[in-house]
Structure formats: C-alpha cells, structure tokens
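Bumping my old thread because nobody answered last time. Still need a sequence for this structure:
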C-alpha cells in the first residue's frame, strides 16, 4: 500500500497518469462500490495532499456523503445547491478557482479556498460526484479536470 500511495516525481499530469494506472490495478477484482470509492478517495487525497477528497452519491433529489478523506463534511446537498449540486445539475465538471466567488457555495470548512467537482457517470446517468477541496486558491485547472474524469470513470 505504501508503494501504491507513493508520490511520483514529475509534473501534475505525470502524477495523475501514474495514479490512474495504480487505481486501475488496485480496484481490479473488487466489485464493492463503497470499497472502491473509499480507496480511490484515499489514493487521490494522499497523492496530492489535498484538503478534502471524497464522494457524494445521488439519492433521490439529494447528494449524500460517501467515502472521503479529510475533515467532517456536510452530509446532504440538494440538487442544484453549492458546487456539488451545480455540477450534478449542469452535468459537467466544475472548476472553481475561488470558492468565495461561487454563488451559493456551501462552506463545509472556512479553510477551503478552491474546489473541483467531477460527476460520476454510470449507464448514462449521474450516480454521484467526486469533490476535492484545496486550502489554496486556483489549485485546479483543465489538467485536473481531464484526469479526474478519467479516474472517476474507473469506478
Ligand atoms: N463545498 C461543497 C460542499 C461539500 S464540501 O466542501 C466537502 C459545495 O459547495 O458543494
């Protein structure tokens, strides 16, 4: 496990590429969705040292907290609310450079400064989202969006 979580040398894209390969190999053979989400959240979180990394799952009209790494978080988010609910409603990845500039952002922690939310698709429907928060402004960009979409698709 320590090896799986080791931080790769190189730039962000290279680190994501290695993380992707490790995730494919780690999750192969495990069918349980919660187990898969839990280890995927841990791998992403500890590879990059983010502030909060985790999943919310679609349950009716709400997102319900799933496996995560980091401080306590809101347990339920309504459709269209906050960054997570907006990514679900708009059915696309949202990159927020400064959460204070995002109308309706849900502040689970005042330490969170920027955020990315990636929808998790299964059979043409959004089943949940991956949410990652950073303590720094403008942590996430198109490279994160592209790789995290690929990584979430492993689920
Ligand atoms: N900031 C998110 C809420 C989830 S937590 O940050 C873990 C949002 O606005 O949807």
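Sorry it took so long. Here it is:
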């Amino acid at each position: 496990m320590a090896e799986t979580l080791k931080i790769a040398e190189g730039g962000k894209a290279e680190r994501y590429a290695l993380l992707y390969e490790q995730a494919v190999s780690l999750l192969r053979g495990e069918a349980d969705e919660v187990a898969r989400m839990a280890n995927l959240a841990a791998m992403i979180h500890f590879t990059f040292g983010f502030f909060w990394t985790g999943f919310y799952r679609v349950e009716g009209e709400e997102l319900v907290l799933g496996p995560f790494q980091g401080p306590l978080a809101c347990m339920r988010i309504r459709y269209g609310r906050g960054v997570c609910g907006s990514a679900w409603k708009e059915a696309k990845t949202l990159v927020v450079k400064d959460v204070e500039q995002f109308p309706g952002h849900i502040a689970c922690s005042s330490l969170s400064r920027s955020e990315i939310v990636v929808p998790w698709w299964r059979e043409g429907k959004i089943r949940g989202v991956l949410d990652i928060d950073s303590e720094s402004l403008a942590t996430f960009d198109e490279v994160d969006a592209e790789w995290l979409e690929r990584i979430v698709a492993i689920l």
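The longest strand covers residues 125-134. Let me know if any region looks off to you.
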